[in-house]
Amino acid sequence: MTDATIRDVATLEAIVGKVPGPLDMKVMDHLDDSALRWLTLSPLLFVAFGSGTRIGITPGSGAPGFVEADGARRLRLPVASLDEPTLAQPGDGFGTLMLLPGVAETLRVNGRVAAIDRNAIELAIDECYLHCAKALIRSDFWAASPRSDVPDASEAFLGETRFMALATVDANGRADVSPKGDPAGTMLRRHDGAVWYADRPGNRRVDSFRNLLTQPRLAAIALIPGSSRIAVLGGSATITTDETMRNAFSVRERVPRIVTRVDAPALAIRDSAALARLAPWPLTTRPADVDAAAMFATHVQQSTATGMQAKLARAALKIPGLMRKGLDHDYKNNLY
Question: Which Gene3D superfamilies does the UniProt entry name for this protein (predicted)?
C-alpha cells in the first residue's frame, strides 16, 4: 500500500504547486493606511497564541476599532475583548484574522506578544496581508440568519459547521490563523477516531501546511454562521492524500488534493461570549468604500521585491480594473 502521508515541503509543493512569486509581494512588515483603516472598521477577530509546542485560539470582539494601532508596527488588543485572554504569554507568536461585516476578504496580521498588562495585550507586527474571499464565500458566512437550534452533540455540530479559523505554529513559535470554509457536511468530519478537513483553493501560501510539517499541533474554532456557539478543536495533524477521504470531501464534483487528519482530537462545544456580545447575524451594515481589490494592488505596488516577476506584476496592476477582474474570475471559477 502506498503511503499517502505528506512529510516534507518538496512533496507538498509537488501536489499543490509552489507559491507564485507575486503572491509574496502582498505581504508587508507593517500596517499601511489601508490596513489601519481596516482595523478601525473591524468588530471581530480570531487570534492565536503559541510557542514552538503550544497553540491556542480564541475569538474576540468589540466596537469597530477595538483593536488599536500604536503606529504602523504595534497593536493593543483589549484583554476584555477575548473569550480566553490567558492563552497569551509574553514572547508568544500570535496570528490574527480580522473580519469586516459583509466583506469576504480578511486581514491577517502576525507577529509576537511584546507585553501584557491588566488591560491589554501589546503585539509587535512581523507581517500583514489581505487574504482572499474564498473561505467566507464557500461558508456563506455573512448571509446567515440568527440560529438558536444548533445541535448539542459534537458530531452533529461538526456536521453543520461551515467556517473554521485554523491556528498553527512553526517550530520557532511563529503563529498563523487561516480561514477555512465549506458547505455544511463538508467542513469537518469524524472518521476512524480522528477529525478530518479538506484543503480548498485559497491564497496558495500554504502557511498552515508548512507549519504543520515542522510542528503538527493545531487549534481551531469551528462555527455555524448565525450561532454564537463554537467548537474548539485541538490535536495533532497529519497531511495526507488519502483517496477515500479526499473523495468524501468532494464538492461540485471537485475532489480536494489534500486532506488533514487530526488525531487525538480534543473537542469542546461552548458558547462564545465574543460572538454573543457582537451578534453579527443578521448582517445589518457593511463598511462603505472598502475596496479589497485596491488593497491587494496597493500592497503589491508597495512591495520592495525586485526582479522581473516583480516588475511585471507592478506593471500589470497599473491597468485599471485588472485586479478586480482577476479576483472576480478566481472567486467564480476556482472555489473548489
Answer: Electron Transport, Fmn-binding Protein, Chain A
Q: Are 69 and 36 spatial neighbours (Cβ–Cβ below 8 Å)?
A: yes
* SS3 category, 251: strand
Element (H, E) at 297: helix 292-302
**H or E element in which residue 44 lies:** strand 44-50
Cell numbers representing residue 193 in the block: 477516531
| Spatial CA neighbour of 166 closest among 188, 138, 186 | 188
Please compute Rg for the chain using Cα positions: 19
Contact 38, 84 (CB under 8 A): no
- Interatomic CA distance for residues 330 and 332, integer angstroms: 5
User: Rounded to whole angstroms, how far apart are CA atoms 148 and 301?
Assistant: 45
Distance CA 202, CA 24 (A): 14
Q: Partners of 198 in the beta sheet?
A: 259
Query: Coil, strand or helix: which one is 225?
Result: coil
In the chain (336 residues long), the average pLDDT of successive 10-residue segments reads 84 83 79 96 98 93 97 97 98 98 97 97 96 96 95 95 97 94 96 95 80 96 98 97 96 95 96 97 91 89 80 82 90 92
CA torsion angle for 270, 271, 273, 274 (degrees, to 10)? 80
In order of 107, 293, 295, 325, the CA distances from 320 in angstroms are: 23, 11, 14, 10
Alpha-carbon distance 177 to 65, whole Å?
A: 20
102/147 Cα distance (integer angstroms): 18
Q: Which domains does the chain show, CATH number per domain?
A: 9-333 (2.30.110.10)
CB 186 within 8 A of CB 199: no
